[in-house]
Amino acid sequence: MFFHAHPDDEALLTAGTMARLAHQGHRVVLVLATAGEQGLASGELREQGLGEVRQREAYRSARLLGCARVVFLGYADSGRTAPASGTGPGRATRAPVPFAAADVDEAAHRLAAVLAEERADLLTVYDPGGGYGHPDHVQVHRVGYRAAELAGTPCVLEATVDRDLLLRGLRAAGWFYRFPPEFDRNAFRQAFAPGTEITHRVAVRRFWRAKRDSMTAHRSQATGGESERTLAALRRLPGPLFRYVLGTEWYIQRGLSATEVLDDPLTTLPRRRTSDSL
Fold first, then answer.
1. Mind listing the domains of the chain with CATH numbers?
2. How far is CA 36 from the centre of its chain?
3. What's an example Gene Ontology biological process for this entry (predicted)?
4. pTM value?
């Protein structure tokens, strides 16, 4: 089960792993905390109802990756300036509640119910900083770990990016790509996780087309804002470069160190039924 904050997060961080698992015969489930209605998009898309548009895009992405099921937990997209996570009882009973402000235990029980129903062997969340600090991503980390505890899910992996490789890649890209003036490469110095914390590097180059198709499914997130969107820039990369840049996905399993295991943890998972795929 892959737990993400918004539609398109799965395309960027875990799509290759999802496609690989589905190809190997595993039952793959995508759970989204919100519909991503606060994302950047054109005015025309907002008039259509951005949340509904992004939900449809999420279902299309999931089909392309071979997912068996998509679940929306029903929280509101908090945006980039969300309030701190709620801790008082009943905070998440009002609808729609911004995910970042939801009571962690209440949200975790929602997710745990799906984990138990699916008899999930693996749950992915984000690293403690939510990758780049989005409040909903930080909340995914909190809620996911608590849900796994409640449901007895045996393995939790934190989807992240190798920060060291990312920074080197940005430096190299600066030689042939002119970043927009507002782009601050220094902001990534604290984003995601250093290479020394990565415990699992999953090879997904064979599934690069599925990953790029997943990105393409999220058309609403290719436009909007004043500069080029990451999703749009990545999906335009030529095939060989796309495979090279996005051919690995990174995870952290707490309790292990990077010197103990660098193998793919996915090959030992028991296969689940896939006959009812989307």
1. 2-252 (3.40.50.10320)
2. 12
3. glycoside metabolic process
4. 0.85
